From TrEMBL:
Membrane-spanning parts: 17-35, 364-385, 391-412, 461-481, 559-575
Protein known as: Membrane protein insertase YidC
Subcellular location: Cell inner membrane; Cell membrane
Keywords associated with the record: Cell membrane, Chaperone, Membrane, Protein transport, Transmembrane, Transmembrane helix, Transport
Low complexity composition bias: residue spans: 57-79
Residues annotated as domain Membrane insertase YidC N-terminal: 98-379
Organism: Edaphobacter dinghuensis
Signal peptide stretch: none
Biological function: Required for the insertion and/or proper folding and/or complex formation of integral membrane proteins into the membrane. Involved in integration of membrane proteins that insert both dependently and independently of the Sec translocase complex, as well as at least some lipoproteins. Aids folding of multispanning membrane proteins.
Species lineage: Bacteria, Pseudomonadati, Acidobacteriota, Terriglobia, Terriglobales
Topological category with respect to the lipid bilayer: Multi-pass membrane protein
């Protein structure tokens, strides 16, 4: 291996050579400067007219630019021979262009060639998107955009260049109103900088971007940004649900706020990537996944004066919440990407694919741990809604009825199994009494367990039979819990006195009904084999827990739970009147009397 020596340890000859080399370089540098100044004076271009240029006076914060993944544009320019300035293309005044279809109304400003308003209109399944004040929903978080940048702005690793790209007055191909399908191009050039941004629109939520930035004729690594947040993040739930979503090498990942940092970059192949919150997303689908580069930003804003329906601890000081952003770039400097900005609705996401054979955006939806169950719960709920039950509250009630009808055979099977267990209870007690003198670690105890299992098998008793309804209902309940706050279709869905099924009942009527119905479930359901004192404790503990749980959660869950309880009460009341139910209650009553010291001991009914 070659030896690398420290220049500070070289002899005097090396020092003299180094000094001579420096003098030569200084002489060449000043000579070139003199020659360039003299030549420029002879060939000085005419001063641009007012129609060709304008003065850039506004300064935009650039502290959140992505970290440079290559030498900065200014350094790269200095390393290359100076070139003639490109013709100036620059507007003289600020203008706007509005692009509209049935789904959105996008307002572009020629200042920065960026979006200043993005109104989402018609909801999937009917209705109109509105904010919490009843106004048309602007998907841009204006507070964050004013501080950190507007959508479809450009960022590089050079703060000065970022300010130029953001504040420059581009020349648009059209102003006023455009009806999609349409194409809108913004051009800007001055000095050694040239920028072209072309956007193509159709009748869907997806538009296409073609962006190039060059300096001294060389491509500059720029990122087309969605800098931060969404317009409906005006409550604690909205801020908490923000995440970065990616599909790389066929694997979808959802990065929580804790895992996101500003300036972090991810290289391709990227099928799609972007940022989202509970209901809406801004996702880039690059034309060339292999050369795509994703960058992320994480900033904070103070929402102490703007947040609504907050579960934050409201104090007199600032309330800083994170705002996540994402941008797409390319290793070759030429950005070509489709961009989806819209609701995270299953039907919408499923129809958008990264390529003909690529993954769709459907996996953008994340319903939590029981996501698979939650997904199909909502698909069923959506089917009921589209079949004619146009109110989501009534659709939830009908879904609950269908689930409980399907659960009825399991409840009957559980009662039958419980009765069989009660019939052999005296024999089981006799076996336990026989082995009572042995310690728990004694091998004889295994013989006791074997005898009990044989007795149960001979009498057709399934020791897990009583768990089947719980094993079904609990995952369904947790899946509904995870699904409810994540489906945009239920956003602002009302039912009777409840204005939004995804928010708590403002009058807390449903949680109170929930407590009463849960108590009645415990009261009417016979529990053979359960100690009466334990049954009494559960009759009060379970309603208290469920009531507290639904007091602060979305009213849709309380509606689903309470209706399920009332259906269970009705079913149980009917079953209690059958021969099976009567026998169960008789057996349970006799067992209670026997434990109290009265009545005869039941020997079991074979």
């Amino acid at each position: 291996m070659a030896e690398f020596k420290n220049p500070n340890q070289q002899g005097g000859q090396d020092n003299n050579s180094f000094l001579l080399m420096m003098l030569v370089l200084i002489a060449v540098f000043f000579g070139l400067q003199y020659y360039h100044t003299k030549d420029a004076g002879k060939n000085k271009p005419a001063t641009p007219t007012a129609a060709q240029s304008t003065t850039i006076s506004q300064n935009t914060p650039a502290s959140n630019a992505p970290a440079a993944t290559q030498p900065s544009s200014s350094a790269a320019a200095a390393a290359k021979p100076a070139q003639s300035a490109v013709p100036t293309v620059q507007a003289t005044a600020a203008t706007t262009t509005v692009v509209e279809n049935e789904l959105y109304r996008i307002t572009f400003s020629n200042k920065g060639g960026q979006v200043v308003s993005w109104i989402l209109k018609n909801k999937p399944g009917g209705g109109v998107f509105k904010d919490d004040d009843g106004k048309p929903l602007d998907i841009i978080h204006q507070q964050a955009a004013a501080k950190y940048g507007y959508p479809l702005s450009l960022q590089t690793g050079d703060a000065a260049l970022n300010a130029t790209l953001t504040n420059a007055l581009y020349v648009p191909s059209a102003t006023g109103n455009l009806a999609a399908p349409a194409t809108l191009t913004f051009k800007y050039s001055a000095g050694d900088l040239t920028v072209t941004k072309t956007f193509t629109f159709d009748e869907t939520y997806v538009l296409h971007a073609d962006v190039q930035v060059t300096q001294n004729g060389q491509p500059v690594r720029a990122y087309l940004m969605w800098p931060g947040g969404f317009g409906d993040q005006d409550n604690s739930t909205g801020y908490a649900s923000a995440q970065i979503d990616t599909n790389i090498d066929g694997k979808t990942e959802h990065l929580s706020q804790k895992k996101v940092t500003t300036g972090n970059t991810t290289n391709g192949p990227i099928a799609w990537a972007g940022t989202s919150e509970a209901f809406f997303a801004a996702v880039f689908l690059p034309d060339a996944p292999a050369t795509a580069v994703l960058t992320t930003t994480k900033n904070e804003i103070d929402v102490s004066k703007t947040i609504h329906k907050s579960s934050f601890s409201m104090s007199k000081g600032a309330i800083n919440v994170p705002m996540l952003g994402a941008g797409i770039g390319s290793t070759n400097g030429h950005i070509q990407s489709r961009i989806f900005v819209g609701p995270k609705a299953i039907k919408v996401l499923k129809a958008i694919k990264a390529s003909d054979n690529g993954p769709s955006l459907e996996s953008l939806l994340d319903f939590g741990f029981f996501g698979v169950i939650g997904k199909y719960l909502f698909i069923t709920l959506q089917f009921i809604h589209s079949a004619g039950v146009t109110n989501w509250g009534w659709a939830i009630i009908l879904l609950t009825v269908l689930i409980n009808i399907l659960m009825l055979p399991f409840r009957i099977k559980t009662m039958q199994n419980g009765l069989k267990m009660q019939r052999i209870q005296p024999q089981m007690n006799a076996i336990k009494e026989k082995y009572k003198k042995y310690k728990a670690t004694d091998p004889k105890k295994s013989e006791m367990n074997a005898e009990i299992m044989k007795l149960q098998k001979d009498n057709g008793v399934n020791m897990f039979g009583g768990c089947i309804p719980t094993l079904i209902t609990l995952p369904l309940l947790y899946a509904f819990y995870g699904m409810l706050p994540r489906v945009v279709e239920l956003r602002h869905a009302h039912w009777l006195w409840i204005p939004d099924l995804q928010n708590p009942d403002p009058w807390h009527i449903l949680p109170i009904v929930m407590v009463i119905s849960q108590f009645l479930v415990q009261y009417y359901t016979p529990s053979p084999g359960v100690d009466p004192s334990q049954q009494k404790m559960m009759a009060f503990t379970m309603p208290a827990i469920s009531g507290w749980f639904t007091w602060y959660y979305g009213a849709g869950l309380a509606l689903y739970w309470a209706v399920g309880n009332f259906i269970g009460i009705i079913q149980q009341a009917v079953m209690n009147r059958t021969s099976l139910g009567k026998e169960m209650r008789e057996v349970a009553a006799k067992r209670a009397r026997r434990k109290a010291g009265t009545g005869k001991v039941i020997q079991g009914k074979q």
